[in-house]
Amino acid sequence: MEFIDLKTQYQELKKSIDERIQTVLDHGQYIMGPEVHELESRLAEYTGASHCITVASGTEALLISLMAVGVGEGDEVITTAFSFIAAAEVIALLGAKPVFVDIEPESCNIDVDLIETKITSKTRAIMPVSLYGKPADMDRVNDIANKHGLVVIEDAAQSLGATYKGRKSANLSTIGCTSFFPSKPLGCYGDGGAIFTSDGELAQVMREIRVHGQSRRYVHSRIGVGGRMDTLQCAVVLAKLERFDWELEQRRKIGALYDELFGNRVWRNRRDSGYESAFAQYTIGVENREAVQAALREREIPTAVHYPIPIPLQPAYAQFGDEDQFPVAVDMARRVISLPMGPYMQPNVVRYIAESVLSQIRC
Ligand SMILES: *Cc1c(COP(=O)(O)O)cnc(C)c1O
Questions:
Q1: Cα distances (angstroms) measured from residue 326 to each of 94, 102, 124, 311
Q2: How far is the CA of 226 from the centre of ligand 1 (A)?
Q3: Which residue, 213, 241, 269, sits at the end of a domain?
Q4: From the alpha carbon of 191, which atom of ligand 1 is closest?
Q5: Whose CA is nearest to atom 7 of ligand 1?
Q6: CATH code of residue 92
Q7: SS3 state at 197
Q8: How far, in Å, are 48, 185, 232, 278 from residue 236 at the CA level?
Q9: Of 79, 83, 163, 200, which has the fewest CB atoms closer than 10 Å, so is most exposed?
Q10: Sign (positive or negative) of CA dihedral 285, 132, 146, 68
Q11: 143 and 95 in one domain?
Q12: Does 115 sit in the ligand 1 pocket, CB within 6 Å?
């Protein structure tokens, strides 16, 4: 069994993926070829954002967004204490201070009630993460940001395809960033990412930053990065996009089946109305994680831990926080396990996994 079954997906989509790749090999425009522009317009349409800027990775999307907003030395950016490292990393990389906020136990997303306590005169932006595929409570984050004149950048690396009150994740705030890392809900066959915004001026700045701050060939109006996404990777995403909505439906069915089988016997994400998760992960929480993981390993069921250490407790980030301030993140980091999830899973496999977990749990 695979944790994320990319082989079956390739077999299902082989014809169109192969054709798309062959087209790029034939035209030879490996950098900023027609597939780059096609993908950007398709994804803008998909999310409803006016602009989509493809970039080299999800991390690069977050970095370029912060650069475009002008975040730098002395600034503070508010983000979650519990996520993949990327958002905190790019804040620190620009010389700004990541200010961590604990999570809410229902979703493992940023606890919006705590955000205002962290705002200072140095705060420039808020970067919530839509973890496991479920959007953060973006309307409330936006309200706080508007009140204090801050920019909101959603880290939608795990949530492309999710909806929040009928709107698509990555188009829920001034800027949204996603990733096409192979294991994400919409993945390519290498690294890739995209930024979404409906602010035309910001979009132009981000397009320039993506290509070394170039406003015209060899005229560098600002400091930028080498941040383009390969044409070949855009071709792969274009092929997969044809099936994406169907795949999301399947993920939701698998998620609903897991939910039904687990009931209230493990921690699991609350399914609030108005939210449709992209189910990047199906994550549960148990008290005896190591025993559960070992038992699953024996049955050849792969698992992963997203994430074992809250960011403020990471050695490189200890300088920014105090571990006592993040009780929920500390607790969830000790309990969470992600189970196999994907659009091509069979219900009997889901049942087998759930039974294997339930026979081991201590809550
Ligand atoms: C994967 C991920 C990223 C980074 O994406 P890359 O494309 O791997 O750089 C950022 N944030 C979150 C929450 C992620 O899951």
A1: 24, 5, 22, 10
A2: 18
A3: 241
A4: 7
A5: 58
A6: 3.40.640.10
A7: strand
A8: 21, 13, 6, 19
A9: 200
A10: positive
A11: yes
A12: no
Total domains in the chain come to 2
CA of 86 to the centre of ligand 1 (A): 6
Query: Is residue 1 situated within a structural domain?
Result: no
Pocket test for ligand 1, best of 80, 84, 184 (most atoms within 8 A of CB): 84
Calpha distance 240→244 (Å, rounded) = 6
- Structure confidence by residue, pLDDT tens digits, 134-175: 999 999 999 999 999 999 999 999 999 999 999 999 999 999
Pocket test residue of 179, 230, 306 for ligand 1, highest count of atoms within 8 A of CB: 179
Q: Is the pTM of this model over 0.85?
A: yes
Nearest-angstrom CA–CA distance, 211 and 209: 5
Q: Which of 89-93, 112-116, 241-245, 317-321 has the lowest mean pLDDT?
A: 317-321
154 and 267 both lie in a single domain: no
Listed residues 181, 213, 241: the one ending a domain:
241
Contact 73, 96 (CB under 8 A): yes
For residue 56, the CA-to-ligand 1 centroid distance in Å is 12
Taking CA atoms only, the protein residue closest to ligand 1 atom 6 is 58
- 305: in domain: yes
For a substitution probing ligand 1, which of 109, 110, 158, 311 has the most ligand atoms within 8 Å of its CB? Answer: 158
Q: Is 301 in the pocket of ligand 1 (CB under 6 A)?
A: no
Taking only the tens place, the pLDDT of each residue in 298-315 is 999 999 999 999 999 999
Q: Based on the domain organization, do 10 and 94 belong to the same domain?
A: yes
Is position 109 within any domain?
yes
In a domain, 12, yes or no: yes
Q: List the domain range (segments joined by +) for residue 215.
A: 6-241
Which atom of ligand 1 lies closest to the CA of 280?
15
User: Is 209 within 8 Å of 222 (Cβ atoms)?
Assistant: yes
